[in-house]
Amino acid sequence: MKKVFVLTGVIAIVGAQHLQAQATCPNGAPTSQSQATANARQQAADLFQYMAPQIATAIAGGSPTLGQTSTLGGLGHFNIGVRGTALNGSLPKVDQFPVCYTAAVSTTLPTGGQVIPGAGADAAIGVFSGIPLALTNVGAVDLLVSATYVPAVDESNVRLDLPDGSLKLGYGARVGLLSESIIFPGVSLSFMKRDLPTLNMAAHSGVADSLFVTGLKLKTTSWRIEASKSLLVFGVFGGVGRDKYESSVSEVRASVGAPVVGRANATLVPSPSQSLDRTNLFVGVKLNLLFFKVAAEVGQANGGDVTTFNSFSGSAPNASRAYGSLGVRFGI
Question: For the residues 139-148, what does the mean pLDDT come to?
Fold first, then answer.
């Protein structure tokens, strides 16, 4: 999972040029380093726009605390969980991208199906049990905490550094609209913020190309309305919500070997960024054991507008993306 995640991130932001395909380019030879790298920089920007929503959905998932959708019941109650997510995504085939050293050329960039992984941990802490009503409570409050971990990597011509550390903590809260009881389902409104640690990347394609990404940041903010009901050992849950994905990089630099001008170095200006709002729907089942819960969910994120210079084969940058998550929780 680590290698796939890092490879996905590097391809998403860098978009290295390869010399295995040729584009229809304006005649002539490049006259400047900026002209020689124009196509590479434009493809890098489009790859960022294409992959950022997929990585963000793999981080955000569906339920903010998988397997625990109702409030906990106030002070003295808590649980912790871990989960893994697999997104039905698309990965650009960078080795088949067309090369042009005289201008940025708009074309259709090839893609192929790829499972995009995500993983994380979270905790819920009960702080208020709510206001009692007949057979239920309303207004209960839980605090939510999340943790996302990305390891440093230096292998296969890819280097990944994390200047602020590999661990990124998130936070949120859940308010009970109805506490689950024998008659009533648990219904809650939650807010959760999950981010990636800040990343610096360097990728090298043999001796021809080197690309450097500084200050990659990806942030997700999720709102959810969820309902759940336990049926003895088993339970069902589902929800709907809105996600906001915000991603940016401080700098993208490219160094390519081009005819006439030789080694060409240039920075992508302006540095790419993206802000995207999506609707997220999910359903799931859980197994209630004495101290543990095992839960699985499937969901889909859709909506939002993404503009790119190039187009992509297969699915569009803002295409609906299905995902599945599996997690385990422990709590009292």
Answer: 95
**40, 115, 247, 265, 301 from 304: Cα distances, Å:** 26, 21, 14, 34, 10
Tokens of 294: 């095992």
- What integer pLDDT is reported at residue 206 of this predicted model? 55
Is residue 18 very low, low, confident or very high in pLDDT (cuts 50, 70, 90)? very low
Give me the amino acid identity at 202. Answer: A
Instruction: Give pLDDT, residue 19.
Output: 35
Torsion of CA 243, 90, 5, 61, to 10 degrees: 30
SS (H, E, C) 2-39: HHHHHHHHHHHHCCCCCCCCECCCCCCCCCCHHHHCHH
C-alpha distances in Å from residue 208, one per residue of 39, 58, 81, 262: 15, 32, 45, 10
Q: Are strands 108-109 and 311-312 parallel, antiparallel or unpaired?
A: parallel
Domain 2-331 is of which CATH architecture? Beta Barrel (2.40)
Q: Are 130 and 71 in contact (CB under 8 A)?
A: yes
Q: What is the C-alpha to C-alpha distance for residues 218 and 201, in angstroms, rounded to an integer? A: 14
First to last CA, the chain: 31
* Phi-psi category of residue 42: left, alpha or beta, with phi > 0 → left and psi -120 to 50 → alpha: alpha
Residues 6+ apart with CB under 8 A from 123: 65, 78, 79, 80, 81, 144, 145, 146
* Cα(313)–Cα(98) distance, integer angstroms: 14
Task: Give the model confidence (pLDDT) of 309-321 as tens digits.
Answer: 999 998 999 999 9
How many beta carbons lie within 10 A of that of residue 143, not counting itself? 16
Kindly give the residue spans of alpha helices, DSSP state H, lying in 38-176.
Answer: 38-60
Buried b (16+ CB within 10 A) or exposed e, 9-36: bbbbbbbbbbeeeeeebeeeebeebebb
| Segment 45-103, tens digit of pLDDT | 888 889 889 989 999 999 999 989 889 989 999 999 999 999 999 988 877 888 787 88
For the chain, the structural domain boundaries read: 2-331
